[in-house]
Amino acid sequence: MRGATSAKWVVGAVIVAMSATACGGGDNKADGGSAGGTFRFGITEPTAIDPVNAQESEGIVIARALFTGLYDTSTDGKLIPKLAESGTPSDDGKTWTFKIKAGTKFTNGEPVDAESFVRGWTRVSAKASASDVSYHMADIAGYEDLHSGKSDKFAGLTAVDATTLKVELSIPDFEFVKKTAHSVFSPVPKVAGAGDNKAFNDQPIGNGAFKMTSPWQHNTSITLVRNDDYGLQKAHLAKVEAKILNPANGSTLEYQGFQSGQFDYARMPTPQLTAAKAKYDPQGEWISGDFSGINYLNIFNQNAPFNNADARKAISYAIDREAIVKGVFQGLQKPASAFLPPSFADVYQAGVCTSCVKQDVAKAKEYAEKGGLKPGTVVNFGYNTGAGHEEWVQAVAQQLKDVLGLDVKLDGKPFKEALATQQDKATSGLWRQAWTADYPTADNFMTPLLSTTGIGEDPATGKAQGDNRGRYSNPEFDKLLVTAKATKDDAARAALYKQAEKLAVDTDQGVIPLWQRTQYRLVNSKKFKDIKMDFYEDPTLAEISLK
Amino acid sequence: MGRYVIRRLGQMVVVLFGATVVLFCCLFVLPGDPVGSLGGDKARDPAVVEQLRERYGLNDPLPVQYGNFVKNLAQGDLGEDFTQRRPVTEILQPKLVNTAELAITAIVIDIVIGLLAGLVAALFRYSFWDVLITLLTTMAVGFPSFVIGMVLQKAFVVELPWFPLISDGTVNSLILPAFTLAILDAALVARLMRGTMLEVLRADYVKTAIAKGLPRRTVLFKHVMRNSIIPVVTYLGISFGTLLGGALITEAIFNWDGIGLALVQAVQQQNNPIIIGVVSFGVAVFVLLNLIVDLLYAVLDPRIRLA
Question: Which domain of life, per UniProt (chain A) (predicted)?
Fold first, then answer.
């Protein structure tokens, strides 16, 4: 008897709840009524939103809304001054002097002055912070001492007066200014404390267009409200809600959230792109952009069978990029014929990788012959699983089998395991890799990915600790990079970078570019205007406004 | 009974010890450095890697690491996770609450729908309702839960916006995931209940009870239900344990921040402190639930003596 009663009660409750939702459902669309509106989108749980360790695009979008640094960067790599009135290098390129806009404040009222930049950068590089992004400051004098704990001062940084910041570098770098667009170079107020100050980590107090009035709800949401005391052009939106989605299903949830009107901005799962474009492009709710990144094959340069440029070129010639772009990516990616992205207009050279331009079976076979790449040669081809690479990786493998008769062994591994294999000195063959820029400099591609220092070989274990895990190494190339960095004239420097790319990517074929980085989003342009993607592929929160 | 419980709890400590030792050994032999890389393709600065290895004692030999783990565990400290560097207890606590919330709702739905359907099917054997229930339970068992979840989501979130896509902490957000999770178990419970009830209905003591002229209701609830429910309780105990271990697929589809997803993500990232925390919790829950089920037997069937 008792059982039956409670069963009735539960069923009753379910029905009540269902009817309650039926009424409540409509509210979702109506809550933009307040002045400025609420912009809603989905992200995955960031590692950090405090500039001290914000690193992936999800963390950076929040950090950059909360903090404003010296410069910002446009999607095509141009610098946009923010708090910097000027940034001037010395003649030797080793000292940079920044003039900072006077009179702006953090949201707690502390002034944003040169000292606050010194404080922020020191906080990032201090040993106790163990920051994953502090390496961006590695060229500033005194970094080593601070990072190893020998000192608690950043020797290369001086607040000359309230509005003058002097930065001394340990090597000449005429492009250092571009690095400062990254959120890691943000100023912080005194209350920030050390890098592991949990209260500040979860609710940073910044000087950006938005602020947080409640701490980060881990795995649930992050809410930003407009900073009405912002020292620069104020934001239009009253509120930004970033719902935190699980990475296993994130893009699907974003897409469904957009379809059901619960998100104003969304990524889509790759297989849905074509359908989404067909539906939303005509309504003006589809945006796309080419970004500063590259998808490529790492080719292990120091081990057979790819320890000579001819064998590497054979692989590149054998791949039909056009066919894969059409067949696998439904035309939504663009084949790459250079390593540097087209967004870096001053250094971009379409077709610099001769072997990338078009599949050429005859040339592939000719180079294979020259490079000792006989049919039947075993080639390991690694990729990380669970990221949707399976289909195109198989297509590339099939082409290599068909054109060169290679015995391609696909080797999918979960992420950490994949990395360990790539780092191993004995690894040979190919590996899928992608890179997106941290700031708009050619150096940000070439030094980590192609230079000898980028290998970072651990003398004890032989492990490649850097990002150049294909271990391309050419002293002539290394020298070109150093010279380029130390060249003051923009055009002359660009010419050197072009020469360097030609050497590494064409002559030596140190890596094999595959496709460029193109991104697509759905945006609620019925309600908002000026929703665009920024350099970091995040929505331009500070510019969006209600229609 | 008291001694029995204490003995079983003692066994739990042994099981936990065994499980964590096995887990530590497994994690140790995994290739790759748990703090060796960032989320993307980028390698971590070697100096930072070294700092983190030191901070988390990863350079110590395995027995020392295990000793430290036990020492901290005794103080309720599961350490710090490797990505966000927050205390594991702080990270897992809301997830455990979420998982429990979902599991309890699902098990309640299981019990209500499953028992009711089983009861009806057995009492009105070969009737329209019996055939319908058999059909529906077959379908429920046949469909994978991700299909059910995605169909429910497409229908009641995207097409008919009745439910929020992302949990907003209300009962509304609980309904779809709980149903998705409960459907399979409810079907199994219904079938189990039907089978055992039919058997009990044929038993001599039921015939006797009816012959004695006891009211139908008394026969049903006092004699039939009570005797047919034991296998169902066993099944529900195990099922509840599984649910408390986290329901990966349902959690992913409905963005339910539970421990199932946390575990999978932690395994992918080799975020060992989270793995150890979730698995230890899962083992403890399983052992405890089994104990409760065994104790329930004695309550339901006085012939069963625990010693």
Answer: Bacteria
Chain B nearest CA to A102, separation (Å): 35
Considering only the beta carbons, identify the residue of B158, B253, B268 that sits closest to A249.
B253
Last residue of a domain, one of A187, A205, A223: A205
Contact B56/B82 with Cβ under 8 angstroms?
A: yes
Q: Do A11 and B32 touch (CB under 8 A)?
A: no
Per-residue pLDDT reduced to its tens digit, A54-113: 998 899 999 999 999 999 999 888 999 999 999 999 999 999 999 999 999 999 999 999
Is the pLDDT reported for residue A31 higher than 80?
Answer: no
Q: Which residues of A touch B115 (CB under 8 A)?
A: 3
Q: Out of A11, A386, A434, whose CB is closest to B41? A: A434
Residues A328 and A219 in one domain: no
**In chain B, positions 187-216, which contact chain A (CB-CB < 8 Å)?**
none
Rounding to the nearest 10 degrees, give the CA dihedral for residues A459, A462, A467, A470: 130
Nearest to A249 among B86, B158, B252 (CB): B252
Question: Do the interacting molecules here have an ipTM over 0.85?
Answer: no
Of the candidate ranges A109-123, A227-241, B244-258, the one whose mean pLDDT is the lowest: B244-258
Both tokens of A464, joined, read 């490649």
In chain B, residues with a C-beta closer than 8 Å to the C-beta of A247 are: 265
- Which residue on chain B is closest to A246 by alpha carbon? B255
Range of the domain at A348: 290-519
* Inter-CA distances, A359 with A7, A25, A514, A535, Å: 68, 53, 12, 31
Residue B13: partners with Cβ closer than 8 Å, 6 or more residues away? none
A48 and A101 belong to one structural domain: no
CA B174 to chain CA centroid, nearest Å: 16
Answer yes or no: is pLDDT of B59 > 60. Answer: yes
What is the tens place of the pLDDT at every residue in B115-126?
999 999 998 989
How many domains, chain A? 3
**CATH number for the domain that contains residue A29:** 3.40.190.10
Quick one: A473 and A357 in the same domain?
yes
Close Cβ partners of B63 (under 8 Å, ≥ 6 residues apart): none
Please indicate whether, in this complex, the C-beta atoms of A248 and B108 are within 8 angstroms of each other: no
Are A279 and A316 in a shared domain?
A: no
Q: What pTM was computed for the model?
A: 0.86
Q: Does A160 touch chain B (CB under 8 A)?
A: no
Whether A56 and A151 share a structural domain: no
A219 neighbors B94 (Cβ within 8 angstroms) = yes
Here the CATH number for the domain that contains residue A505 is: 3.10.105.10
CB contacts < 8 A (A, B): 152
- pLDDT for A35 beyond 60: no
The CA R_g of chain A, rounded to the nearest whole Å, is: 25
Q: Is the pLDDT of residue B165 over 90?
A: no
> Which range among A84-88, A162-166, A460-464 shows the weakest confidence by mean pLDDT?
A460-464
A348 shares its domain with A326:
yes
Interface check for B135 against chain A (CB to CB < 8 A): the answer is no
CB contact under 8 A, B161 and A28: yes
Of all residues in chain B, the one with the smallest CA distance to A255 is B158
> How many other C-beta atoms can be found within 10 angstroms of the C-beta atom of residue A322?
13
Based on the domain organization, do A80 and A198 belong to the same domain? yes
Give dist(CA B297, CA A518) in Å, integer: 62
Same domain, A322 and A468: yes
Supply the pLDDT for residue B8: 84
A23–chain B Cβ distance below 8 A for any pair:
no
